[in-house]
Description:
The structure is a homodimer of 284-residue chains.
Chain A: H1 3-7, E1 10-12, E2 36-43, H2 55-70, E3 74-81, E4 88-99, E5 104-112, E6 115-124, E7 134-135, H3 161-165, E8 169-170, E9 187-192, H4 202-208, E10 228-235, E11 244-249, E12 252-254, E13 257-265, E14 271-280
Helix pairs in contact in A: 2-4
Amino acid sequence: xxxxxxxxxxxxxxxxxxxxxxxxxxxxxxxxxxxxxxxxxxxxxxxxxxxxxxxxxxxxxxxxxxxxxxxxxxxxxxxxxxxxxxxxxxxxxxxxxxxxxxxxxxxxxxxxxxxxxxxxxxxxxxxxxxxxxxxxxxxxxxxxxxxxxxxxxxxxxxxxxxxxxxxxxxxxxxxxxxxxxxxxxxxxxxxxxxxxxxxxxxxxxxxxxxxxxxxxxxxxxxxxxxxxxxxxxxxxxxxxxxxxxxxxxxxxxxxxxxxxxxxxxxxxxxxxxxxxxxxxxxxx
Amino acid sequence: xxxxxxxxxxxxxxxxxxxxxxxxxxxxxxxxxxxxxxxxxxxxxxxxxxxxxxxxxxxxxxxxxxxxxxxxxxxxxxxxxxxxxxxxxxxxxxxxxxxxxxxxxxxxxxxxxxxxxxxxxxxxxxxxxxxxxxxxxxxxxxxxxxxxxxxxxxxxxxxxxxxxxxxxxxxxxxxxxxxxxxxxxxxxxxxxxxxxxxxxxxxxxxxxxxxxxxxxxxxxxxxxxxxxxxxxxxxxxxxxxxxxxxxxxxxxxxxxxxxxxxxxxxxxxxxxxxxxxxxxxxxx
Lengths: 284, 284
C-alpha cells in the first residue's frame, strides 16, 4: 500500500437503518430515506503545509469515502474549506444526492471535534473513451522527468512537509519565488510524482490539483498563506502510469481573492484533470 | 420589479423548530441543530432552452434562496444538475454549513415533485475592494453595445425562449453556428443585457454564466442539447450598471464531456465573474 493510499484510508461505520435511529436520520426529501454513510478516517501527519493539512489531501480523503459510497471514481468535485485541519481523527458523513446509471452525485461533510471543516459536492462516474475529441491546449514544456534529480527548492529553504511525500520537479526558474527571485509571472509548472513512485489515480489527481506552491508567489506581489475558499477539480481521463506534467496560473487578483487554474497532463500528453480554486490572497 | 427578479422570486415557509418537527429535522453534525430553511418558488415559463429551464436560471433561483438565508450575495457557487426541470412549482431546501464573519457556506437542494433536481454548494460574502490587484486578461473585443440592434440570430432561426428575455448581441460571425457557418473555433463572445434593461447583480451573473449558446457549436464538431453536469461561478466584483462583455470557450472535448470556461466583464473593463462548467457533448 502506498503512502498516499495509507494516508487517505477510510473505514465505514456499521450502518444504522434510519428507522432505528432515535434522532431521525436525515431529511426525507423525496419521501424515501436518504442514504447516509459515516466513515472514520485520520488526517495523517506530514501532509501539511506548515501545520494545517493540504487542501488537496483533505479533498482526496473526503472523495475516497464518497467514491466508496458511489461505487465509482470522481468526475467533478468541489470542496469548500471551512477551517484549517490539523492531524488527528475525523469523520466523513456521505449522503447520496442522486444515483444515476452513469453518474452518482454525492455530498460529504468532514467533521473534526464536532465541527464541520470541509464540505464537498461531487459527481462520480467511470471515464469513457467515446465520441468526439478536441484539444486546443498542450502540456507545459518540461525537460523529461528525472527521478534522480533532487528537488531544487529543497536546498536552503524551508519546504512544507507535504513536499517530502512528493517528488515534484519544478520547471527551472519557477522555484524562484522560494529564493527571492520570483519570475514576475503568476505561474508555476513542473512534474508531479509521489516520492514512493505510487501510481496516481482519480483520487490522487485531487491531491495533485493543490500540491504546488501558489503561482501568485512568482508574481512577486505576495507571499504567505493562501487559504483556499473553494476548489473544483474535473477529472478528464484516467492517467497513464508515470509522472504528471502540471501548470498552475493565477490571472486575476481583486477584492482580496484570486483564482488559480490548473491543468494536469499525463506522460502520453493527454489532459487528465483541470482545476480551479478561489483563494484568499495573503495580507501584506 | 424586473422580469428576472420576478422569475427568481422565492418565498420562505414559516420555520418549524427542529424540536417540534415529528420527523427529526436534520443531522446534528456539530451537536447543535442545523439551520434549515425551506423556500417555495416556481420555475417560470420562458426561461427555457426548448423545454427544460436554463441551467443558469435554475442556479440563480437556488442562489436567491441561499443568499436570503446567508444574508449576503454569492461569491462562489457550484451546481450539479440532476434532471431537466420543466416550468412549475419547486421547493428549495437551504442548509447552513457554516456561518463565518465574512463568509457563509450554504448548501441547497431544489426539489420538484418530491425528487431532487439540482444540488448546490456555495459560499456567500460581500465583495471587498481591498488589497493587491492583478489582471492579465482583457474583455473580448466588441463594438460598443447598441440596444437598438436586433439580435442577429433571431432572423430565420429557432431561438430558445430564454433569448427573448435577453438582449444578447453576439460578436459578428459568432452567430455562424446558427446559420450553418460555424467559425471553426469553439468560442462565442458578445454582450449580455436583459431585454427589459434590468440591472445585473451577483445573482444575475449566475444566469449570465450559462446564457450563451454552447461555444462547441462554433467548432462545427457538434450541435444539439449540451446538458450541464456541473457549473461553478466565481463572482469577482459587483458589476457596474450596463451590459456585460462575455466570452465562453471550450478547449477540451474527451470522454463524452467538455468544459466550458466563461469570463464576464462589465462596461468599465472589470472582470466581474469567471465560470466553468462540465457538460455532456451531444451524441452525433
